[in-house]
Amino acid sequence: MVNTAVDPVSSADIASAGAAVPHDMSFIGMFLHAEPVVQAVMGLLLFASFWAWAVIFDKWLTFRSIKSKANKFESDFWASEALDKFNERVKKRANHPMAKIFVAAMEEWSRSKIRDLSSAQMAQKLGIRERINLVMMVARNREIEQLESGLGFLATIGSSAPFIGLFGTVLGIMHSFTAIAISKNTSLVSVAPGIAEALFATAIGLFAAIPAVISYNKFSGELDKFAGKLEDFSVEFNTLLSRQIEG
């Protein structure tokens, strides 16, 4: 005779699973049902991600603009016949690093030419060259420092966001296991939503960190190349002025 008795434990599990309140497993739902501390971590990471994307967009526009303006400036510079006339035209709209370096050097050149160039002493000529070189170096460093602004934030987000997300995940999982111990219910239905909400914090951390790391590496490379371009221009321009001083 076949035993048709129903296992009371199995039926109780099925009944509890069927009576369980369904969880909203969407991104918004997991955020709203997470613990307050985990929600704070998620909110911090989302704000950091928004800020990082704002920096990325700003840097992308900035580097695109300065590279285009620098190329045009170099073409106009080498096509010009008189430095003084070219300086008068450029200094009114010196809105990119290469033009600012040029204008700073020409201002020092004009002051030195009035005071010292009438003398034929070699020491004074060398002093003029040195001052112009120092002025261009200071202007170049100032412009590079401005271009570097924001890159440190991207580096910080790229390195710290995964760990901040992991911190929220650990807290969420600890709370889930504490709830399991109190309720003594180890079914997957009761455990899964809390763990999913906790792991969502790590996902947000990676969402913030990955674009920040990629963008930081890209913009750092762009900055190094542009800094080299400015240095080459400074050397070439200083050489050109040196010929005029010695002549």
Can you put this structure into words, describing what you see?
This protein has about 250 residues and is mainly α. The chain has helices at about 10-20, 25-35, 35-80, 85-90, 95-115, 120-150, 150-185, 190-245.
State the main characteristics.
single chain; 247 residues; mainly alpha; disordered N terminus
The whole-number mean of residue pLDDT values reads: 79
H and E string: HHHHHHHH
Unreliable spans are 1-21
The tally of beta strands, per DSSP, is 0
Number of contiguous helices: 8
Tell the overall outline.
rod-shaped
What structural class is derived from the secondary structure elements? mainly alpha
Separation, N- and C-terminal Cα atoms: 120 Å
Cα-based radius of gyration, to the nearest Å = 32 Å
Oligomer: single chain
Describe the secondary-structure layout.
Elements: H1 8-19, H2 27-33, H3 36-79, H4 83-90, H5 97-115, H6 122-148, H7 151-183, H8 188-246
Helix pairs in contact: 2-8, 3-7, 3-8, 4-5, 5-6, 5-8, 6-8, 7-8
Give a short overview:
By secondary structure, the chain is mainly α. 85% of the residues lie in helices and 0% in strands.
